[in-house]
Design goal:
The chain has 13 helices and no strands. It is mainly α. The longest helix is centred in the first third of the chain and has 25 residues. It is globular, with a radius of gyration of 17 Å. The protein starts with a helix and ends in a 7-residue tail after the last helix.
Length: 272
Amino acid sequence: MTIGLILAAVVGLSLGLLGGGGSVLAVPIFVYVLGYGAKEAIAMSLAVVGVTSLVASVGHWRAGNVRLKVAAAFAPVAMLGTWVGARLATLVSGTFQLSLFAVVMLTSAVFMFRGSSRQMEEAAEGECCRIAPAAITAQALFVGVMTGFVGVGGGFLIVPALALLSKVPIRIAIGTSLVVIALNAAVGFAGYLGEVEVPWLFMGAFAAVATVGATGGSRLGRFVPQHALRRAFAVFLVAMGTLILFENRASLLPGHAVAGPTTHTTTTLQGR
């Protein structure tokens, strides 16, 4: 548990610095470090990421890196998609969710590499913020469904989408994404209530530590080169995604029984 709380600070730091990555870190921590089942881990990660993103967005708001009109165009459709994704998640196994989560991690790594490109870094403040309704709607729906289904807050999908398609400067895309993530995560967590047992006390402690990390991350983000951070984190995503797919490989092969941490950890919530 001590290690888990230390890692909670890393979750918050990622959100504060990059505008995403909280769930990408939190879900593996809850499953592989703390031993929770996949569905419980996804539900808790949504709550933690939602609270942490909201706190981190305050620092970005003060720095002028939040555009409410962009969030208003993106968030409603994303929230609808999140609710749908959370309901769909109750129909599949936790192992399937983890496998899909790994695929999303690898996809996010591609976006991260592309997001480090000069096109994102050179997005001019004067061009902000061109909204393409059809593109925004499609992006928001996809991100929302993924948020609810596999517990991904969507930051690593939202940030490149805003910067590349809507010409939002990278730091504003990061700040704005935190507002959308907070709303998405709240809806996604609500979709899991009643479906899984939540260890409220520990989740609250984890979220509290993560918010401290997020506050520090939002301040550090003013000084750290974003492209370097994104490339480094993209490598991490590839490593973690590959590891999760390997751990759940049996469920992906025909004729094999479901294996992995989700088969024996979903009952460990009692007494936590």
